[in-house]
Write a structure and sequence with these properties.
The complex is a heterodimer of chains A (155) and B (237).
Chain A lengths: L2 H17 L5 H8 L8 H25 L5 H18 L2 H16 L2 H34 L13
Helix pairs in contact in A: 1-6, 3-4, 3-6, 4-5, 5-6
Chain B lengths: L9 E5 L3 H13 L3 E5 L2 H15 L21 E5 L7 H10 L8 E5 L4 H9 L4 E4 L4 H5 L2 H11 L3 H9 L2 E9 L10 H4 L6 E9 L7 H5 L19
Parallel strand pairs in B: 1-2, 1-3, 3-4, 4-5
Antiparallel strand pairs in B: 6-7
Helix pairs in contact in B: 2-3
Classes of the chains: A mainly alpha (155), B alpha/beta (237).
Chain lengths: 155, 237
């Protein structure tokens, strides 16, 4: 694929991530914090998010498997996940966490179990999307092209 | 955006989340601040303790420090997360405001939750701002006036300052973003002026004395509130 074509693909793909609600404006903020002195800032922070979240999802899974579920503890994990997903702009993960927390508050185990599946699903979907995005970027750079700036004004 | 003087501003950022520390560190560095990050309130106090004691041995006598005298050891502002295990951001704020050597340092609280009672409590306790997470460049731009003020106070105005300790006057200035996220985030430079989607609250309460410093009040963000009385005004958000 030639560079121009890859660049157009990246622009279209990024746009779709916003259109489908995977990303929100916070992701644009992350991009703005990346410069020559920190060329890999976005990838670094997003990778950190995935490491951190995998651990949180494991903790959540085991917390909900306990005989007597400690909903406060569950809520604390979800609170963390919600915070970090909103910090990187992973909007759908964040939204799933918001619903999850309302079930924690109600101490609704069934609701929490459903939400855990929902959050996991959104998380792996987001991971997949970010990986595609970063791979596209790397391919463009490897081909000697530059990354087109994200020009989305309505998010 | 950055001048030599401003680059000397030193911000201590406190957050238990590594992702958020990375984020706030970049946000502040890209705005030309010197940044120290710590992951808990107790580490923040530890850091402040060693620095402040070295730097300002007789803190109550308001030492005369000119900008060239601080060699990057002074903390000009503390920005802390609210919700942390152990010592919360609120606990840290209280400890700072209770300390005679630390209470001049402006404190800004960040929180992912828009809980009015929480915001009120923090402002009553002496926080300069309450910023909703995730923090954006536009929020970081709001920190500057608070740091400018302390710098100014430490300079030629100390005498007036001491007088003012007696005739306290408190001004609380707080801006709260509306949710959901706005459309102006791409225009960073303009966004600090763009307040169309921000709720602005200026709460002022003066304890009796309409003193000579009144004029300074008008300048937004330069309020002489280093020694604030607790205000009893009811804040509605």
């Amino acid at each position: 694929m030639e560079v121009g074509q890859m660049q157009r693909r990246l622009v279209e793909f990024t746009k779709s991530l916003f259109m489908e609600g995977f990303l929100d404006g916070q992701f644009l903020q992350l991009q703005q914090l990346q410069d020559e002195s920190n060329p890999d800032f976005v990838v670094e922070v997003v990778s950190l998010f995935f490491q951190d979240s995998e651990k949180l999802l494991n903790d959540l899974t085991s917390a909900l498997e306990q005989q007597n579920v400690d909903f406060k503890k569950v809520d604390a994990h979800v609170h963390q996940l919600k915070g970090s997903s909103s910090s990187i702009g992973a909007q759908r993960v964040k939204n799933a966490c918001v619903v999850f927390r309302s079930f924690c508050e109600e101490q609704n185990l069934e609701g929490c179990m459903r939400c855990l599946q929902q959050v996991k699903q959104e998380f792996y979907l987001a991971k997949d999307k970010f990986e595609t995005l970063f791979t596209l970027e790397q391919q463009i750079l490897a081909a000697g092209g530059s990354i087109p700036a994200t020009e989305i004004t309505s998010f | 955006m950055s001048s030599a003087a401003e680059s000397q501003f030193h911000v201590l950022a406190v957050d238990d989340s590594l992702i958020d520390r990375k984020l706030i560190e970049r946000l502040l560095k890209i705005s030309s601040y010197q940044v120290t990050t710590v992951d808990s309130g107790s580490k923040a106090l530890e850091f402040l303790g060693s620095r402040v004691n070295d730097d300002r041995s007789s803190s109550d006598s308001l030492p005369s420090v000119s900008p060239s005298d601080h060699q990057g050891v002074e903390v000009n502002l503390i920005i802390t997360d609210y919700c942390m295990p152990g010592m919360t951001g609120y606990d840290l704020l209280k400890k700072i405001k209770e300390s005679s050597s630390l209470r001049d340092i402006p404190v800004v609280i960040m929180s992912s939750e828009n809980v009015p009672s929480r915001i009120t409590r923090c402002l009553e306790e002496g926080a300069e701002e309450f910023i909703l997470k995730p923090v954006r460049l536009a929020d970081v731009n709001k920190l500057r006036p608070h740091m400018m003020r302390t710098k100014k106070l430490k300079g030629q105005e100390q005498e007036q300052e001491q007088e003012q300790e007696l005739q306290e006057e408190s001004v609380t200035h707080c801006e709260i973003r509306s949710q959901p996220p706005r459309q102006h985030e791409l225009e960073i430079e303009q966004s600090q002026q763009d307040q169309s989607q921000q709720i602005q609250q200026h709460q002022q309460q003066k304890s009796g004395n309409n003193n000579k410093r009144k004029a300074l009040d008008v300048e937004e963000g330069l309020s002489p509130d280093r020694t604030r009385s607790r205000y009893n005004g009811v804040a509605t958000f």
